[in-house]
Amino acid sequence: MSTARQGAQWYKSSRSANQDACVEVAHWALETGVRDSKNPGGPELMFPADEWAAFDSAVRAGKFDLG
């Protein structure tokens, strides 16, 4: 983990309640990180901030809904 990422504010969805099988997300100026909440010291997936914003907008618009 880079020094810039140490002390990051990771959070998970409020909809996940107290479940352990969740992802956590952290935002920086130029990128967004995603990691497994069960393994916070494990690998992180990093996405450019603009790509994450497009993904988030698509999710909120229901583009990935199965029903």
From TrEMBL:
One Pfam assignment: DUF397
InterPro entries for this protein: DUF397 (IPR007278)
Residue ranges of domain DUF397 in the record: 8-60
Domain of life assignment: Bacteria
Name of this chain's protein: DUF397 domain-containing protein
